[in-house]
Fold these 2 entries.
Entry 1:
Amino acid sequence: MGASKAEITAFLAREFQRTQAKCEIGEVSDRSATIIYHTDHNDLRPGGTVSGPTLMLVADVALYVAILGTAGLIPLAVTTSMTLNFLRKPAGDREVIGDCRLMKVGKTLVVGEVWLYSKGIDDPVAHAVGTYAIPAQ
Amino acid sequence: MGASKAEITAFLAREFQRTQAKCEIGEVSDRSATIIYHTDHNDLRPGGTVSGPTLMLVADVALYVAILGTAGLIPLAVTTSMTLNFLRKPAGDREVIGDCRLMKVGKTLVVGEVWLYSKGIDDPVAHAVGTYAIPAQ
Amino acid sequence: MGASKAEITAFLAREFQRTQAKCEIGEVSDRSATIIYHTDHNDLRPGGTVSGPTLMLVADVALYVAILGTAGLIPLAVTTSMTLNFLRKPAGDREVIGDCRLMKVGKTLVVGEVWLYSKGIDDPVAHAVGTYAIPAQ
Amino acid sequence: MGASKAEITAFLAREFQRTQAKCEIGEVSDRSATIIYHTDHNDLRPGGTVSGPTLMLVADVALYVAILGTAGLIPLAVTTSMTLNFLRKPAGDREVIGDCRLMKVGKTLVVGEVWLYSKGIDDPVAHAVGTYAIPAQ
């Protein structure tokens, strides 16, 4: 059974204090989640764009939140792979939105995709596909 | 013509002040580079391991430094894709080593792989393959 | 300007006789294409499932057709990368459907995703993200 | 315990008759394998080059053979993901060589990389990273 937005927010606050401060859960439901990431100067690259590793962080959190929303509060799920394609320069002065949809929820592997956006701009800035391993229960 | 280690260090210090503080260039030569990344508490995840986005950052910098060492100081090269496979938990109390070797240096695309290690431990913690687009000169 | 379905079908028949025999274009429009692939015994694996390389072939053709439908008949576009995630066993006795949507159409690089299905079954069997390089004109 | 070259050859001949006819095992040992693929006109693309899906097939077989050589004859291992980067045009009149090295052999997941070559030419034509899921025993 999946966890609620309030349960996941409390769980992340406990487990990932630092990331949590910048990552807000927009929505979470069975097999999907939306993350709003509040960029600051630590996320920027020359030219006022958002760094690739920051985009990966948002994709990773969006996937993790979608998994928690689907399968419940699993602390030991770990990322096993991620493929990112960078499509357009993100705007450094806007929040990053990560929209995740799970493709497969297996017993040991979960696969999902994440579209990344600069808030308020239609064209995506990046796309990610990631895999999490779920520990045997 | 490729840039030297001193030239690249000065270039990164100018362009990427913040990252540079934690990323040291171990070696750089034609088509390869080694990066030593000094982890701190900002890079850690619960369980004392290094976060995935930090590993991606090291892979990205290693690729970029190998490109600068091969093709010279190109400020506008941008990452277009990256695939990471996470193999083992990195030790949070060790530096991360990124060993990059370029596979292909084309006119518009450069492809390389990066093996990531916890310093002093033989088995790699992750593997990355990334692509940079080189702007037309 | 993009090419029409009839133009692309004729072009593929000329250039890729063999593949074309098994690949039918369902739809093609600006930035998207659907391919119907007629599997035969050469595509099967033990257990009556469709082989991974056959799925890659369908993904590759779907991407190529979407590019031709968007940018016109470019014979020299070449695949530079592809990432596939295999989600469920495809049914060996059904056609494979490849649904492609382009994410980015740049001057030198095109990136798209392809969802692969066993015809008539809702859950996708695989997902692909691929990149084509477009030669300078 | 890993299987020998003769055991794996017999196993593949039984399970994958068709592929086996074109795939010869060069070497197999703990965590590595080399495959020699005999291309024919079915593998070619316009311009006399080898198709991407053929390269994926060679990568997939090389990974599978390395797994069998490491963990024994596991018929139910399945590919869960593969990322290919195409580096240079393969020569259509040469065999394709696939050199696989496993990066991680876990209880449920195996990850490996494969370098693909046109036989007798030093520069690789493609690079693949793939993951197999190993069924619980």
Entry 2:
Amino acid sequence: MENLLQQVKKGEVTIDEAVEKLRHLPYEDLGFARIDHHRQLRQGFPEVIYCPGKTNEQIVKIFSALAAKGNNVLATRAEEDTFEAIAQTGKFPAARYEKQARAIVLKQNELSPSKTVLPIVTAGTADLPVAYEAKVTAEIMGQRTELISDVGVAGLHRLLAHVPKLQEANVIIVIAGMEGALASVVGGLVSCPVIAVPTSVGYGASFEGLSALLTMLNSCSSGVTVVNIDNGFSAAVTATLINKKIETRTD
Amino acid sequence: MENLLQQVKKGEVTIDEAVEKLRHLPYEDLGFARIDHHRQLRQGFPEVIYCPGKTNEQIVKIFSALAAKGNNVLATRAEEDTFEAIAQTGKFPAARYEKQARAIVLKQNELSPSKTVLPIVTAGTADLPVAYEAKVTAEIMGQRTELISDVGVAGLHRLLAHVPKLQEANVIIVIAGMEGALASVVGGLVSCPVIAVPTSVGYGASFEGLSALLTMLNSCSSGVTVVNIDNGFSAAVTATLINKKIETRTD
Amino acid sequence: MENLLQQVKKGEVTIDEAVEKLRHLPYEDLGFARIDHHRQLRQGFPEVIYCPGKTNEQIVKIFSALAAKGNNVLATRAEEDTFEAIAQTGKFPAARYEKQARAIVLKQNELSPSKTVLPIVTAGTADLPVAYEAKVTAEIMGQRTELISDVGVAGLHRLLAHVPKLQEANVIIVIAGMEGALASVVGGLVSCPVIAVPTSVGYGASFEGLSALLTMLNSCSSGVTVVNIDNGFSAAVTATLINKKIETRTD
Amino acid sequence: MENLLQQVKKGEVTIDEAVEKLRHLPYEDLGFARIDHHRQLRQGFPEVIYCPGKTNEQIVKIFSALAAKGNNVLATRAEEDTFEAIAQTGKFPAARYEKQARAIVLKQNELSPSKTVLPIVTAGTADLPVAYEAKVTAEIMGQRTELISDVGVAGLHRLLAHVPKLQEANVIIVIAGMEGALASVVGGLVSCPVIAVPTSVGYGASFEGLSALLTMLNSCSSGVTVVNIDNGFSAAVTATLINKKIETRTD
Amino acid sequence: MENLLQQVKKGEVTIDEAVEKLRHLPYEDLGFARIDHHRQLRQGFPEVIYCPGKTNEQIVKIFSALAAKGNNVLATRAEEDTFEAIAQTGKFPAARYEKQARAIVLKQNELSPSKTVLPIVTAGTADLPVAYEAKVTAEIMGQRTELISDVGVAGLHRLLAHVPKLQEANVIIVIAGMEGALASVVGGLVSCPVIAVPTSVGYGASFEGLSALLTMLNSCSSGVTVVNIDNGFSAAVTATLINKKIETRTD
Amino acid sequence: MENLLQQVKKGEVTIDEAVEKLRHLPYEDLGFARIDHHRQLRQGFPEVIYCPGKTNEQIVKIFSALAAKGNNVLATRAEEDTFEAIAQTGKFPAARYEKQARAIVLKQNELSPSKTVLPIVTAGTADLPVAYEAKVTAEIMGQRTELISDVGVAGLHRLLAHVPKLQEANVIIVIAGMEGALASVVGGLVSCPVIAVPTSVGYGASFEGLSALLTMLNSCSSGVTVVNIDNGFSAAVTATLINKKIETRTD
Amino acid sequence: MENLLQQVKKGEVTIDEAVEKLRHLPYEDLGFARIDHHRQLRQGFPEVIYCPGKTNEQIVKIFSALAAKGNNVLATRAEEDTFEAIAQTGKFPAARYEKQARAIVLKQNELSPSKTVLPIVTAGTADLPVAYEAKVTAEIMGQRTELISDVGVAGLHRLLAHVPKLQEANVIIVIAGMEGALASVVGGLVSCPVIAVPTSVGYGASFEGLSALLTMLNSCSSGVTVVNIDNGFSAAVTATLINKKIETRTD
Amino acid sequence: MENLLQQVKKGEVTIDEAVEKLRHLPYEDLGFARIDHHRQLRQGFPEVIYCPGKTNEQIVKIFSALAAKGNNVLATRAEEDTFEAIAQTGKFPAARYEKQARAIVLKQNELSPSKTVLPIVTAGTADLPVAYEAKVTAEIMGQRTELISDVGVAGLHRLLAHVPKLQEANVIIVIAGMEGALASVVGGLVSCPVIAVPTSVGYGASFEGLSALLTMLNSCSSGVTVVNIDNGFSAAVTATLINKKIETRTD
């Protein structure tokens, strides 16, 4: 919107054009949803549908509107029957369901793969669904990833074997439930930012991820920042943005 | 009490003696407090006064009643002016104030020192007051200790240097605030019980120790048990009881 | 790992051997899980699979990898269909499902039974599943147990009848939901450590075990330490470690 | 008010009288406070001023308005300087400050003492201020009391010695902080109602009385009801109401 | 137990008899449960089984053991299939299932009905299951009740019409979810104790009864005490105990 | 009730009439529910049934009693089978089920439509069920509405396009889950009251609407007030009351 | 900002003017604060300074910048020494400190008083500071108010006497701490919106206003909306906005 | 440590050297603290002392040990008297106290300034202390910053004026208390990572920063990650690490 105002000031756009653009261009109104097609341009990532709370019918409509522009489309936290509803339209033969990640992926633009590899580290096997959500998200944005799972702090030697690899990364995603201590330990071993994802894995006093969340927020390792419980998607977007900034730097 | 019933059954004690003993012996009534002298016998540790919420006048009376029996006496969470009130009675020249531990110590019986040494490990310097409370408590029960401070998980190598020593212990006390991850890491490196003490060190989302408490309760390292926030006293009592059980085993 | 460094220093292991061992030996990589076979040696207990959040397929693979080494294997919080998936492999005829404990047990090494008996005390009948988890865990480690159930504080005489037995123990597990007061009462009657397990038994203001957890953490009986809500497993491991330390003491 | 409607219906009161009474009689308007003089008649207890949040100036005015009717007056949670402000008026020579109870007491009507004695039981010495608030409140209502302090569950024999006395009571007040287990234990030993008062005594996971509150609410002893943290006043009012109902029964 | 000690002191019971009684009489050991038959004598109410967390098999065994003594038996929070399991034994033709109260009732002793009537007041229709639990509980103890439902504070006139009836009661049960304000309003209108039962009725910020619970604990009406969320049982026991004390007073 | 007292004072109503009216008129007693027919008169809105916690049988009876007076009837949070139970009575052919709003609507009086339009703004598509509850509620009270959905703060331009329309409103309803920031942003752009409805949309640290609730309560935009999580009904009633006050002003 | 775009579209403002205005006009940059002078125009109320967290030096600068435009200025939650710092500048002789409201008031424009009177109702005397904040806020916006204090639900007749007056209002502010039940009771007696302000008055389970906040959010009286704990300011702004909408309606 | 193992493997370091280095080099033991000098090398930032919970005496010792190595030193959350204690040693004439940031800064190495500028954006004036902590931290690491304060969402135009500048940044720090909505709004306007810092600014339902924390964690703007409440330090370290990665990329 501000860009528009700048264009107006420079005379590149007339008033009427500007006002019309401002009101009508930025999104497509489906009645129950407003599709924001130019976000892909702005942030370099696919349009994303967060599925919970939406009916399959709504999701199919949003998915169709997004796909019609030729963008990559990612639907997160998707049930398998939602994918079937999309498949039954027959319009998206390239769409696939990533069961472990609970995601629907439609790749219409192949992005050139990143130079760097993003490590996605999990404390336990039960954290894998969140890790796969992160993996799928990063990859649809062109970010290569490496999954290092089940290296929680109760068996420190499992983690230490991967330290050289971690020290080469620009940014690392650490995913852990229960006590969530892995983020601090990784943060103390590397010199790059660590994005910590608490998971709802655990029981009793884990309070559905609250324990891991608090642990990560209180990390005394510098460079650790935190996203919502189970939010592999947001961690992957942030990590990919950082890597893109590094790889696309133009001096 | 049950012992008494057994003595009655064996005929070692008459009925009237038993009933009288049961009602009158086990404690001394100060009006506002009931002093339980035979606990020292039962659990092998000093009578302890938890000071908060008691007036100096009350503490002096309880302290005097306890000391009169010749037991060791420990007053925890004591303000310096409470010690001065005790000192001013002139009756306990051997009593001393341990400032770092916020404790008043009166040693009237010298216990033979334990064979084993109890490691008391802290994540940071700010956890020291809790560590000193644990140290003073263990030592008045005859338990030798070694304080290993400031070895939090953000600098793992500081901890690893102490692993051989930790692996020799029968039981370890780990004290940490903020994210409290140290207990899990230590628990994963040793094969003895770890008693974890969360501290109120931290700010914001540490919620005055809640974060460290939850972390420790959710530890995925086996053998970790937890006491109340800042409760160095209880950790030390438990650790000493375990060591005593080991050292006093009679086959 | 430190042991390895010590061996290196003493010249018992060459550099190349050490580095290789450090990287490759300590665990077996199944892709989604890393199996830590030498933990059994280190802590003297079976490899354990915590089942929630893992697929049956994953559990079968981990179980197989663990069992292949000849260790005892324990799978906790296991659904009956998980046991059936394991049974259908036909490879573990000795594996059995402990329904009350929700555990799968595979005993491949018979450990000599402990001299001491570990009392497992519950406040109510509804606490039994947690007690059985503790019992199965202790027994696969060779620890003999005695279950004393339904002796909650609302009927104190039921508890008092067991006091002589409790006073002979080296360590006691106390399991209680609702108000969780039993741990304090037991702690005041004995002179050994008490490991308190809050349970999620209750409703309303029990907040799924939070009430019992807080009660136990605030116990004014010395020697009481606490594990996570419903964590019978960890209580049993800790208690068994303590008993092993006592029984294996070598002067 | 309903009584008034009944009087109207019976013709004992005219309409105009009733409406006027309803609007003007029931309270006296001080501008910032409305004094409800007939509550003493209705519930048989003194007018009470809860002091926190009121200025000394406001308290003096309310106190004066209440005292002017000849009722007994009780000001709870009163600072000593509030009492001095009242004393300086020179109008209430009979008013006294109960320091331990933090209460100002003005007895203008001597009530005949109750036949029964109300036991007020505390777990620890630090619970005494709440116990004294209860004691002062009961006594200004004519209820005789007996304070049994420092009989917490960590030393059960101290409590058991008082059981015969407790079993004779119509209703008992139990006051405890920290884990608050005393109410359940007492409730299991007697057959009368127990009014449980959690206190803010404790630290860490006591969360300023929350732990004791939850314990008491989850009591599995029947007949235990609970009041707000530190609310000795309300417990005493309720207990006295029960005793009055019993003693004043007219068949 | 104390009674026993008194009998011993008076010579009415020999030592051996006392010790044996103390150990064996007070309860019957079913292995998983300990049945406390003399509680009915002690508190004048039926043995009660709280069903959640117990298997039908366990409940049938406990029910049978209790019924065998000829006592009245009440099983609360019982599913209908539990009742069917009991019915299928064919041993308790008099047992009935109270669906609205979710209770199984076996009346073997007809108690003479109380003189007084206990008002059970609810704020809304959705609070009825808790009210019926209270009603069934009171009635099996011989307490007559009157249910006054749906008189919440949003329509105050519905409550005011019942004030004369409420003012005649010795004690009142008030049951409310959502904001739980009804207890305070009733408490301000009467001069007898009010037992407040918060319910889990509501949504969002009711946090499953927490809101109503806090409201009731903070009541500024004197004489209001509180039980656990949805605990109609305990409210009824307490109210009945109070009424019994009043009706059975012997001068 | 007060109106009645005023009528009595003016002599328009006799005593006996007043007392009788006060007791019998204001509601109809169905046993389990008390129907308050004159509320429609008092507040100008339909009688409303909040369905959760009521049986279909109860709802049908209440619905029938309300409808019998000729009022409009609204049943909120209604399951489809509840509507079917009502439909099967055959008595309310005009009743319809609003699936998106989870409401049963029976319009028996057509209210003249409001002059003003009430904007109902949602942050996301998943907030729609709450928005539809608000819409149905407002419309049965004669309030015209406009739904503006999916204009959350992550894409600010979608909201800005609607600002002129929002600035014309007398009052606005803003509905948002997750971080709930939309209410503050709207509140800063307009000069009318904003009624904020937090929703339970979200996961993890949204804690079922708590996050959005706290955000809205802490809004630094003046004029924002808040209702319970997911309470579209109450927001609509309040907004409609405000609009009615404006439109019905009589100078 | 949108208005500006509309003016641009209509040709009333040139592009360059618009862009310049948009960037520079709307606020004045003090370095640490940005002053928004046109808010007064937009919402018809004074610029307001929320004092906590700002230094006196900062407040004096902001106050001066605001006052320089001739607007009315209100500083809330102001300490007395902040007022003195403002007074010492000698520039604002008309500024006064409202001690009970903790507010600094500078009236430079006399607004014509509202026709309607806004009732501000409090449950207790301790709620007065919040009520005075509301009163001062409303009055500087030209809204006449009437304070009705100390009419909490424990003495319902005190409230009922004011019902006729309340029923005449367009909107009512209800302020209550502790159980906060007053808002529901008032909401049930009137047919206008009620703005409920929970206060931090109370102790123990009031959790510094949380109890009253939850009560008010769960109100089953329609038309009740809620603001932050102790936020008399926001309640007054909202109520005044509603009254202004009504009084300034132009047909 | 791993680096060391790699050097050993390559033969660059002998065994004895490695083991000695591992044990003795990495830190300096002050008894109560372990100084980790090589962290500066590892992460490129100064040694940092978090002051709360440490005595001035301890801080002076740690500060001296750190400064002796010639590194830059930063002491955060430092009271002014701590700075005076450092100043009185006379050893650090270059040390200065940054009052607004509550930090002690000793710059011994001048780092070349970053090419990019880091925007530090605050919602209100009261958030400035946290912003200054971030600013001081970034600057001692060579990161240039620009502080944009008081642009909260209640006056959106203040923020929009800075959008062009924000869109040029590689990473942005957003600091907000109360409802914390600013991070989501900024996150939706830019295509770089946003590091969100909730602050404890606010009152009532802000629960000392919890509200802002939850808001930020639930942000529906991608690319937003969160640190602990008031943790300007960690946000600045992370942002600077990201910028360094970008500026130091070597292809």
